Each structure stands twice: as C-alpha cells, then as structure tokens.
Amino acid sequence: MFASVELALRIDTAEARLSRSFARCIGIDGGGRGPAPFAMPVGAGFAVFARSGSPMNKVIGLGIDAPLCEADLEPIEEAFRLRGEDTRVELSTLAHPPVGGLLTSRGYRLSGFENVLGADLRAAGGAPAAAAPGVSVELAPSAELSPWLEVLVDGFSVADDTGVPPESFPREVVLEATRDFARAPDVRRYVARLAGRAVGAASMRLEAGVAFMCGAATLASYRGQGVQQALLARRVVDARAAGCDVAVITTAPGTRSQANSERRGFSLLYSRAVLVRRASA
Questions:
Q1: What percent of the chain has pLDDT over 70?
Q2: pTM (predicted TM-score)
Q3: Which of 33, 154, 220, 270 could form an S-S bond across to 158 if both were Cys, CB 3.0 to 4.6 Å?
Q4: What structural domains and CATH numbers belong to the chain?
C-alpha cells in the first residue's frame, strides 16, 4: 500500500478527530478533576489536552495540508504551559519540510519516532483475516470494563524488549488513560480468550472510513500463541463489514508489533517524529 500525501493527511486528520473526541468526553465526564481539557484546531489537525500527564496529550495532523507560522503555535503552547504540560507534536514525514525547522527554532527537541502502518481493506488478500486456532475473540460489553481493562494494563506493563523502546508511562497513568479511551464514543473493545481465560485485549475506532487498530496487548506469559493474530483478524472482519477501506496500526520502530503487523498484510506508510517543547521553555 502506497502512502501518498493525501492518504497521510486523511489518516492524521482522522486520528486528530479521534483525539479530539477523547478530550470532549473527559470534559463532559471528567468530574472537574485537574485542569480543563481542550481540543484546539491547528491546520487539518488538533492540539489535545486530556488530563495532566496523559499519553493522549499531543498535537497531531499539522503541517501536511499547509505550512505553519508562529502565530499558529503560540496559543497552543501557551494553553499547554498554563496546565504545566509540555507541548508534544507528532509530525508526519509527509508534512511540509519547513514545519520541522519552525518547531526546532521554537525550542522543540526530537524525542522519538513512531511508525504508521496500513492495509487496503478493499484489496484481495489485504490484511488477511485468518484467526489463530484455539483463541476466541469477543466484543466486550459496553457497560463492562473488566477484564478488558485489566488485561490491557497488565499487558502494557511488560514490554516485549524488541526494537526501539516505546515511550513509557507509570502504571496509574496508563490505567487512567485506558479508562478515558474506553469512554470515548464508538470505541469497540475486544477480549481474546485462551482455554476460557482472558489473555489479550484490543480496541478499534472507526473514523471517516479509517479503522484504527489501537490499544492491543497480550499478557506476557501468553505471547507467541496467536492472541494478537486473532484479535487483529476479528477487527479486520468488523472493519470491512462497517465499510472501512483502510486499516491503520501505529507501532514503535523495529518492534515485534511492527513485524507481526507486516506479516499480517500491513505495510509501512510513513513515520512521525515526536518533538517536545518543555513547558518551561
């Protein structure tokens, strides 16, 4: 699958809208705890603050449709600064080249990279839907977070020690962010079972024909048994049934997650550089 600028814009814009929905949901249901969340438009994307320390706090989707200027960034940086939060930008490699220079001139520093992989759900053989034997996958009830929540948090707590280590967060932050994610509208939650035990969990969110395969984890002692294969197969089937034409997975570079995704029909579309401007800058 080829990543055109138009496809990258479509994916990043859809993910930006997904992030915006998190902030809006927390604003409604967050109970007034901590600084107020926000979602500020910037270009085709959004700057999103969910809650203090959340991995959902970021700026995404900027610089692909049009260049930026300092006036676009100043109110965003100030909003994050007032909340004591660094400004974290996820910048696509298909963004306008001057955007990176503008960010570094304003004190942003490179923190890491993430890879965006995709599959054409309309293509024959794209993202094959063969499930692993012995693993069953079910939709988690909308009113029930357990065991989906526990499996995800426990799975995320033990990294697979491959590739570039992904950004890590304290367990309590991951737990709260996962609860926030579950409250967002139209999130489908899945649980994988092996011999009746919940051993894996994943999520999917559909936005403008793009199926985001997100929040997937397997308990460490059950890895290598096809759990993620089964979870991905079920989500691909559901995404196709819902009329999506593109499926997207985001991974840290060189990880087992990336390798597994590519074996299952996904290809590397583009990367995002993660640039951070400290709140004290």
A1: 92
A2: 0.89
A3: 220
A4: 5-115+271-277 (no CATH), 135-270 (3.40.630.30)
